[in-house]
Amino acid sequence: MSYLGRGLDNISNVEKLDNITFNGGTTYALTKSSAAFTPAGSNNILISIDGVVQQGNFSVSGSNIVFTFSPTSSNTCDFIMHYGTGLITTPADSTVSTAKIIDDAVTEAKIADASVDEARLKISNSPTNGYMLTAQSGNTGGLTWAEAPSGTLVKIADGNTTGASVSYVDVAQCFSSTYKIYKIFFYDVNTAVDTALYMRWLTGSGSTEQAGNDYTYAISGFNSSNGGSNNGGQATYINLIGEDMRHDADEHFAMEGTLYNPAGTSLKKRFLFHTGGRRTGNYATVGIGSAEWNSTTAITGFRFLTNTGNIDSLYYVVYGVII
User: Which helix (H) or strand (E) element contains residue 119?
Assistant: First the structure.
């Protein structure tokens, strides 16, 4: 099968075609250097016959010119010129190449379209989990995917119970295999009565509370009455403060903790925490603790609860740690 369209050599600005020898017909082949030539259109052809430039009395069909009259053998073709796409105001489709656009000729306004965002940013559309966009060295304006630095915190969940009075707060489906280490923060915690504060783990796709006697914890504390307190043992919960927290309206409890590999299934779960507040008796207290859950089941969330009474206010936030 032969190609019937115009060749690449036929899209330059000006072409001088071979003269035609008329024979009384209406249709004649257009050639350049004896090779078939396909013009862009009849308006791109300038032909002179017997010293008269022709206009509006011919059309083109493929590589042929078709006259509306029949030039005879006594008529002479003076010249045939083809004026290509370079002279028209709007370029024909697929005629503008990268080489034809000069440097810095395209403004940002001309490419401000969502469909070309990827080309503008020069990025891969298949990033790897845990990677971030960063500038390419020596490539102004270019971005690429690079591994995020270690130690970065990524917020997973946050919330509060301000204005509510609840017996516990569940933060479900906040742990996964995406991160090996999670940071948990509680702050502005206030309760209805003096009470101890506990945590339990949640498992499964819902909020299955693990309330069995499978927790072992130890907490060492000190309070402003120059007294120390140690609390620990095996229980159905993790004791976060070691003694009852005071519930006055202007008092509050805060905690930060680190949970290691909650989604893993080969090791028991380890949780380290640091707490502070004001205990019953109106003494400031601080505690440092460690807890182990005697199971290798994956943890998906946690429950924060009291020994007695309700939680009047609480803020929490959970971060995944990129390592």
Answer: helix 117-121
